[in-house]
């Protein structure tokens, strides 16, 4: 005898959903390509351009604060964080990456709004090029796809009692 199991999944239809995208100005050359990929993905999945808003911050470290403010507005079904951190000769990138990922996870968990980590972390410029639209795809696009799926999943999950 096979029991029927209730399964919840989020679709990839972005029609009627609103998204904010927080972008780091540091390494803007790469981040603008990630932003292009994210916007293209949202539009291809049915989002309206009027339902997509962007905010630019100085660097990736500042992304969680702005993501928190955007989530608190109650205007968005998802927030997408985009940045590029390239490892230099010091451990600075490791600290930035750890704090950004923790900060975004905290905002998402506290708010119940998907806050998607689309920060590319690489060892060198060549890897940044590959992950912002070349051989390794566009991380902005995959982050947007994740945001759509999570926003839809949260809409179909049962409410807490």
From TrEMBL:
Record: residues binding (2S)-2-hydroxy-3-oxobutyl phosphate: 89-90, 131
EC number: 2.5.1.78
Top EC class for this record: transferase
GO terms for biological process, alphabetical: riboflavin biosynthetic process
GO cellular component: cytosol; riboflavin synthase complex
Residues reported to bind 5-amino-6-(D-ribitylamino)uracil: 26, 60-62, 84-86, 117
Pathway: Cofactor biosynthesis; riboflavin biosynthesis; riboflavin from 2-hydroxy-3-oxobutyl phosphate and 5-amino-6-(D-ribitylamino)uracil: step 1/2
Coiled coil ranges: none
Catalyzed reactions per annotation: (2S)-2-hydroxy-3-oxobutyl phosphate + 5-amino-6-(D-ribitylamino)uracil = 6,7-dimethyl-8-(1-D-ribityl)lumazine + phosphate + 2 H2O + H(+)
Residues at the active site: 92
Domain of life: Bacteria
Keywords of the record: Riboflavin biosynthesis, Transferase
Tagged with keyword Endoplasmic reticulum: no
GO molecular function: 6,7-dimethyl-8-ribityllumazine synthase activity
PANTHER family: 6,7-DIMETHYL-8-RIBITYLLUMAZINE SYNTHASE (PTHR21058:SF0), 6,7-DIMETHYL-8-RIBITYLLUMAZINE SYNTHASE DMRL SYNTHASE LUMAZINE SYNTHASE (PTHR21058)
Family according to the record: Belongs to the DMRL synthase family.
Function: Catalyzes the formation of 6,7-dimethyl-8-ribityllumazine by condensation of 5-amino-6-(D-ribitylamino)uracil with 3,4-dihydroxy-2-butanone 4-phosphate. This is the penultimate step in the biosynthesis of riboflavin.
Name listed for the protein in its UniProt record: 6,7-dimethyl-8-ribityllumazine synthase
Taxonomic source organism: Oligosphaera ethanolica
């Amino acid at each position: 005898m096979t029991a029927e199991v209730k399964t919840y999944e989020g679709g990839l239809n972005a029609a009627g959903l609103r998204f904010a995208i927080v972008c780091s100005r540091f390494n803007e050359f790469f981040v603008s390509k990630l932003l292009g990929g994210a916007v293209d993905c949202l539009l291809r999945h049915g989002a309206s351009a009027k339902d997509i808003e962007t905010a630019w911050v100085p660097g990736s470290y500042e992304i969680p604060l702005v993501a928190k403010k955007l989530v608190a507005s109650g205007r968005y079904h998802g927030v997408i964080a985009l940045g590029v951190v390239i490892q230099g000769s010091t451990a600075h990138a490791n600290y930035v990456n750890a704090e950004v990922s923790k900060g975004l996870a905290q905002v998402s968990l506290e708010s119940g709004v998907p806050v998607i980590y689309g920060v590319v972390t690489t060892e060198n410029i060549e890897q940044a090029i590959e992950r912002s639209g070349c051989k390794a795809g566009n991380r902005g696009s995959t982050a947007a796809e994740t945001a759509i799926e999570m926003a839809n999943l949260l809409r179909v999950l049962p409410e807490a009692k």
